[in-house]
Amino acid sequence: MSGTEPCERCGSQRPRAAARCPDCGHEPTSRWRYVGWLALGIAVPVLALATVLLGYLALFSLQQGTIGAAGPAIALWIGIWVGAALTVVIVYDRSTETRTATGSPER
Ligand SMILES: [Zn+2]
Question: Is residue 5 part of a domain?
């Protein structure tokens, strides 16, 4: 593991392993944010599809009077949404954390 990469802010070569630029202190986009956005990129189409499918299933069951059969599917659907919401909260929390660290006008 050797080599450097240019700093996004000041352009100086910074060790790849370094968490932040030794010259300007700029912290590159963290691995967690990439993971979060990747998860979000996968979760959004999956959620959209799941919402359509399970929403249709729930409506169909409601119409047929067999909503009990769709119970586990609806529980799964809610679970997926809760998981997605938590992912969004974690990603947003981490992104604001780095933003406030660089100095925000808000007090
Ligand atoms: Zn820099």
Answer: no
Residues in the 5 Å CB sphere of ion ligand 1: 7, 9-10, 21, 23-24, 26
Task: Region of 48 please: left (phi>0), alpha (psi -120 to 50) or beta.
Answer: alpha
Q: Number of folded domains in the chain?
A: 1
Query: Strand, coil or helix: what is 22?
Result: coil
2, part of any domain: no
Task: For 57-98, write each residue's pLDDT tens digit.
Answer: 778 877 777 766 667 777 887 888 888 888 878 877 776 666
- Domain assignment present for 3: no
Contacts of 3 (CB under 8 A, 6+ apart): 16
| Structural domain range at position 41 | 29-101
- The whole-model pTM stands at 0.39
How far does the centroid of ligand 1 lie from the alpha carbon of residue 36, in Å? 24
